[in-house]
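Whether sequence alone determines local backbone shape is best considered at the level of individual chains. When preparing material for the folding task, we compiled for one chain both its residues and its backbone structure tokens. The sequence in question and its structure tokens are set out directly beneath this paragraph.
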Amino acid sequence: MTPFIAEIVGTFLLILLGCGVNANVSLKNTYGNNSGWIVITTGWAFAVYTGVVVAGPYSGAHMNPAVTIGLAVAGEFSLFDVPSYILAQFIGAMLGAFCVWLMNKPQFDSTEDGATKRGVFCTAPSISNTFANILTEVLGTFVLVFAVLYFTDAVSTKDNTIIGLGSLGALPVAIIVWSIGLSLGGTTGYAINPARDLGPRIVHALLPIKNKGSNGWGYSWIPIVGPILGASLAAVIAMALN
């Protein structure tokens, strides 16, 4: 498997299972309806675990443009490869979101509230406050990328040496993401990943979802800018400490 394909597949699995748990908890007429925040954060942690297991040996399992950019800022990843990784991540995220809609279409049809349907795909703040919302995404992504950079070494593949979420190991990175969700995620839904938020948001905008309401474009820049700032900050501080 090439790194490009691995990033598509890993991010696809991340979003299929991550947005899948959102759908299971939020939509009407599912067995998981209203099962709560612990189920959502646990589901996303396991989604990351699954993506890392598959993509880690081939691409480092970035599955997140912020991770890719943060590693490049730190000099741990080639700038030349950044565009292809980000493209693959968005392809995987959009495919995963589409499959979540396809399998849950009857549940989407039976759910009246448009914001609930949108929430399956992308994040929104519990209280709209630009500074606080950006800060949440900065801090959450900082924790993720700092852990990747500071606590682990690169992983070796047949072709070269790469670093990413896979360099932490699947279980530790799942625990880190779970911790971020439990401790920091309640204010914005903790995107901490531009592809995870924008890719499914685009799919939400394109799909013929009954009574889907707003796409939330006014907020959509925050889960892009915040994670990139957080990842870059983590890279700068990690380099200063090493």
Notes: The first strand starts at residue 155 and ends at 156. Residues 3-241 form a domain with the Glycerol uptake facilitator protein fold (CATH 1.20.1080.10).
